[in-house]
Structures are given as structure tokens and as C-alpha cells.
Amino acid sequence: MSKEYIVLEQLVRPLSQITADLVRDAAPVNTLPRINELCTRLLSGDAAAIVVRDPHGIERVLPMTDDRPDLIRLLETYAGNGPWTASTASLDVVEVDRIDDERWPELGRDLAATGCRWVCAAPMVLGTEAVGSLVLFSEQDLALDPAQRTVVQTLADLVTLSLCQESDRARAELLALRALSTFDDRVRYEHAVGMVAGRLGIDAGRAATLLRAHADARDLSVAAISREVTSGTFDWSELDRPA
């Protein structure tokens, strides 16, 4: 069996099913088991769950399957103090790869009682803030390599998207609004390029390059610079005339 076929079967096809669910407004109850299956296939995980912070700042546990109620009870016991809280605080993947980890000694003892020897938490991020963690358990001694850490974070992002799904109508309206905004930005950008070209006596290609370079130099988006140019608030002295 070729390596390409293995990648297709273990990663590409499951991911295509998950993304199709997200596009088609599938309920999380249908999508989360697919993500849990990927955790098992790719990372040798035995169980997965979600720890989510509610509007009052309290950690809530959502099981992704019903296979390991003992692990769900453990998560509920330590919801406010464990790798999952460290993950949300650091916005990074956190592993416990030995049961005597001194950061959470009581958790380690209770984890050993379940037969698990490894736990990993990846932050679920919305914008710049973590709203929870995807938590993976395994009865094996594991240690993630950089590629596997990336996979874990990708799965956490998919969980976040699954739980943030809006109705088809709401998403269609949002898509239309964003498409219109993107179109307006493009028209404004082309207008700004024309204004730069006309003022400096250069061709459109050179004007576009200058506009993008100036946006980068000011750490602004091209859309923001274009808005300044077309609204008349741009300081033309900042833009050196090309030789």
C-alpha cells in the first residue's frame, strides 16, 4: 500500500467529510464523532472530549463519544485545573506525557487509575482568545512531534468551527456581505492605483507595487491605504516619486 494512499485514507478523506459537514450546516452531534475518529486514527488516542468556558467563565465538559465515561468524570473533577486550562492560557498545545507530572500530581494519580498514560490539550481559539480546549487521552506512552502537534491544533480548530456554525440563511447573508465588501475594496484599490499612477506619472503596475510597499511599510492593509488615497486623507509626501 503506497504512502499516498495511506494519507488519502487516514487524513484527506476524513477531512473532506468534516469540511463538507461544516459547509452543509451539519449539527455538531454528527461532526464531532468524525473528528474523534481522526484523533484515534492519526494520534493513537483512546478518547477525546471538549472543555469549554461558558459565559460565566466556568469550564464545562462535552464528550465527543460515550465510550469513556470515566475520563469525562475525571475532566469534570479537574475542569478548572489541568493541561486544558494551561492550553487556553498559553494558546498552545500542552502535553502530559507521564503520570507523575509535578504540575498536576493529583490529576496524574487519577489519570493512572483510568489506565491512561498520556493526555494532550489544544486550545480552541476564536479570534485572539481561547474559548476552550480539545482534550485527547491515550493508554500509550506518547510524545507528539511537530507535525502531530499541528494536526492536533487543526482538529481543535475544526471543533471550534463545528460549534460555531450558524444557520444556512445566516451564513449565506454573511457570505454575500463579505463578497460585496471584498468587491468594494477591489474597486477602491484599482481607483487608488489609478490615482497614484496619474499623480506620479507612472504605469499602473509600478503604482500598484508602490502602493503595496507603502502599506507594508506602515503595517496597514492595502485596503486601508487605498481608502486613504481615494478619500483624500493620504499624505502624498510619504510616497517618494520614483526615479
Automatic annotation (TrEMBL):
InterPro entries: GAF, GAF-like_dom_sf. Gene3D superfamilies: 3.30.450.40. Residues 36-162 form the GAF domain. It comes from the Bacteria. Signal peptide: none annotated. SUPFAM superfamilies: GAF domain-like. Pfam families: GAF (PF01590). This is GAF and ANTAR domain-containing protein.
